[in-house]
Amino acid sequence: MSHKTPKSEKLFNEAKKYMVGGVNSPVRSFSAVEGSPVFISKAKGSKLIDADGNKYIDYIGSWGPLILGHTDKDVVKAVQKASSSGTSYGAPCKDEITLAKMVVSCLPSIDKIRMTNSGTEATMSAIRVARAYTGRDYIIKFEGCYHGHADYLLVKAGSGATTFGNPSSPGVPASFTSKTLVAKYNDTESVEKLFKKYGEKIAGVIIEPVAGNMGVVLPDKAFLRGLRAITRQYGSLLIFDEVMTGFRLGLSGAQGLFRVRPDITCLGKIIGGGLPVGAYGASSKIMSIVSPEGPMYQAGTLSGNPIAMAAGIANLKKIMKKDFYNKLAKRTDLMVGEINSLIDKYGLEANVTSIGSMFTIFFNKEKVTDYKSALKSDTEKFSRFFSILLKNGVIFPPSQFESVFISSAHTNSDIEKTLDVVEKGFKAL
Ligand SMILES: *Cc1c(COP(=O)(O)O)cnc(C)c1O
User: Fold this and answer.
1) pLDDT at residue 48, as a whole number
2) Predicted local distance difference test score (pLDDT) of residue 164
3) pLDDT band at 392 (very low <50, low <70, confident <90, very high)
4) Maximum CA extent, the chain
5) Percent of the chain with pLDDT over 70
6) Complete DSSP assignment for 197-258
7) Are 153 and 206 spatial neighbours (Cβ–Cβ below 8 Å)?
8) Which position among 2, 176, 204, 340 has the lowest Cβ density within 10 Å, counted as fewest Cβ atoms?
């Protein structure tokens, strides 16, 4: 198969003149893999079509939202219908209630929600709620978990010895992250230690209950239960950042799957059906701290935007149908099973972590259980693998530390073709 991308290359060069790195979000720039990004001109179902007319089976899914694939006809119809009635009102509308009701009905931990425009705003606001509600300042986050780009959450993790978060970006004053404590994923002891020292000062613990932003990493059940117990013991709030896993792992997200009820939940991605949306929610008691019911301020000119609400409603309606998640998980399991067989066949140092319709192929000897083990992956090997897939019409997220997303638009023949290409890639490594 010939793969030529002169138009994408030209667009990328032009884009770099006017936008930093030629992109509006760094992960799109292919900086973690070789080559330069393909510019997309059209998408449909499971496919992306680039500016040169190359077609790809897409496993990025817009980084999570597109669980129905691209241009789902009901979502598109809803967007068209809503936009012809107005693009933004600056006043409440009925669809906000409809979407809020749908979310609340699926997540027993949530009585009330507040819509935002992104996941970043959701996590940022959830932290503010935890601080306002408890009257405490410290928060705990975990190495390798991403919660958007708010200052005090932009802490990767220093060396094992540092407990105080070092900002992982310039422009974030150390004083802004001095109240961010960093613990290790799947390591209950690292959390207990922090609580022993700062317990009465810790407002909340924020975590991706299933991690997706260091590649897919599964939590020990006991670890999540431990977090629930210790936060309760110290009067801190447990915040599940389900921006990725919410409505991805099932209607009740990771919290339903692992049967651990957080105090605050952050959502985004799927609840917006591909439009810019985020949300945070909790019990009525906790949410009553938020303005206008309470003193904690948080707002948004476009929050609860009518077009985004309509897209979200159309998206959720379809995934609420019986067996939707079972089918998706079965298809993913099948694919992952085949990939595992191919890993064996070619004797590769690699393994797959998967759950629901998410998975990551780690080019790693060990099973990945936390950030440290994730970082032992061979990123150079991933990069070569990624390029072979791309050249053969399959696009994976362009980084080792991301999740592949399967959508209901991926057909059996898409998956068969993908497996052929994956085998080609493995063979060449
Ligand atoms: C994507 C993501 C975010 C950030 O959401 P944006 O809409 O990109 O701001 C936060 N948390 C998690 C777990 C995510 O996957």
Assistant:
1) 98
2) 60
3) very high
4) 62
5) 97
6) HHGGGEEEEEE-SSB-BTB-BPPPHHHHHHHHHHHHHHTPEEEEE-TTTTTTSSTTHHHHHT
7) yes
8) 2
Domain architecture of the chain: domains with CATH: 6-71+323-428 (3.90.1150.10), 73-319 (3.40.640.10)
Mutate to test the pocket of ligand 1, among 123, 245, 403, 404 (most ligand atoms within 8 A of CB): 123
Q: Is the dihedral angle over the CA atoms 14, 18, 20, 25 positive or is it negative? A: negative
pLDDT (tens digit per residue) in 188-238: 999 999 999 999 999 999 999 999 999 999 999 999 999 999 999 999 999
Pull the structure tokens for residue 177: 């992250």
Among 60, 213, 360, 404, which is best to mutate for testing ligand 1, by the most ligand atoms less than 8 A from CB?
213
Q: Which residue matches tokens 């598109």? A: 76
Exposure on the CB side of residue 59, measured as CA atoms within 13 A: 28
Residue 157 has pLDDT above 70, yes or no: no
CA–CA dist 357, 35 (Å, integer): 27
330 phi and psi angles, rounded to 5 deg: -65, -45
The answer to whether 198 is a known catalytic residue is: no
Task: Give the residue among 153, 104, 118 at the shortest CA–CA distance from 282.
Answer: 104
Alpha helices in 29-144 (DSSP H): 73-84, 94-106, 119-134
Of all protein residues, the one whose alpha carbon is nearest to atom 5 of ligand 1 is 119
- Ligand 1 neighbours, Cβ below 6 Å, are 118-120, 123, 146-148, 208, 212-213, 241, 243-244, 268, 278
pLDDT for 348-360, tens place per residue? 999 999 999 999 9
**Pick from 372, 330, 379, 392: nearest CA to 350:** 379
Helices 306-319, 324-345: inter-axial angle, 10-degree rounding: 80
Q: Is the pTM of this model over 0.90?
A: yes
Q: Give whole-number Cα distances, 360 to 33, 222, 225, 424, in Å.
A: 16, 23, 25, 18
- pLDDT at position 158 is 36
Kind and range of the H or E element at 391? helix 379-391
Please give the average per-residue pLDDT across 50-67, as a whole number. Answer: 98
What confidence tier does 174 reach under pLDDT thresholds 50, 70, 90? confident
At 160-171, the pLDDT tens digits run 334 566 777 888
- Name the token pair of 356: 């629901």
